């Protein structure tokens, strides 16, 4: 299948509607019916203000960023980005065109198996 790899970068303590933003993103992706999503805590980085953030000690947990990732179809991407625009969330993201599928899909993997004779 053709689609996009979406990665959102959020501050670990950033919230939306009283929920950590990374948790809210995963929850919204789940409610939109996306196939899956993941969140990863960064160990260091910098953004537009060029301030280095690093997690060196347990006591500093939450000072860095979280990456939230989804692999989506074009339709799913549009729904997710429209939701973020509608919620007026200012968020940095990357979008990488991608091909995805499942090797040896089962009955619950509808819509993810490549068509006969195609790569994906």
Q: What are the salient characteristics of this protein?
A:
two-stranded antiparallel sheet, single chain, four-stranded antiparallel sheet, 8 strands, 2 helices, 120 residues, alpha+beta, disordered C terminus
Give a brief outline of the structure:
Helix content is 20%, strand content 32%.
Binned, the helix content reads 10-25%
Integer-rounded radius of gyration: 17 Å
Low-confidence stretches: 113-120
The main β sheet shows up as: 4 strands, antiparallel
Number of helices: 2
Order of the strands making up the biggest sheet = 4-7-1-8
The beta-strand count equals 8
Structural class: alpha+beta
User: Could you spell the SSE succession in H and E letters?
Assistant: EEEHEEEEHE
Shape: globular
Strand content: 25-35%
Q: What's the average pLDDT?
A: 85
Topology:
Elements: E1 2-11, E2 15-16, E3 19-20, H1 21-31, E4 37-41, E5 44-45, E6 53-54, E7 65-72, H2 74-86, E8 92-99
Explain how this protein is built.
The protein is α+β, with helices and mostly antiparallel strands and 120 residues long. It is built from 2 helices and 8 strands, in the order E-E-E-H-E-E-E-E-H-E. The chain has helices at residues 21-31, 74-86, and strands spanning 2-11, 15-16, 19-20, 37-41, 44-45, 53-54, 65-72, 92-99. The strands form 3 sheets. A 4-stranded antiparallel β-sheet has the order 4-7-1-8. Strands 2-3 form a two-stranded antiparallel ribbon. Strands 5-6 form a two-stranded antiparallel ribbon. A hairpin with a 2-residue loop joins strand 2 and strand 3 (19-20).
């Amino acid at each position: 299948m053709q689609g996009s790899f979406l990665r959102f970068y959020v501050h670990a303590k950033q919230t939306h509607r009283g929920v950590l933003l990374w948790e809210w993103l995963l929850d919204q992706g789940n409610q939109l019916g996306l196939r899956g999503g993941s969140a990863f805590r960064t160990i260091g980085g910098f953004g537009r203000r060029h301030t280095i953030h690093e997690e060196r000690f347990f006591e500093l947990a939450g000072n860095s960023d979280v990456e939230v990732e989804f692999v989506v179809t074009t339709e799913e991407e549009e729904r997710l980005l429209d939701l973020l625009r509608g919620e007026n969330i200012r968020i940095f993201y990357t979008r990488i065109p991608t091909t995805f599928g499942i090797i040896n899909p089962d009955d619950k993997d509808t819509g993810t198996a490549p068509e006969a004779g195609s790569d994906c």
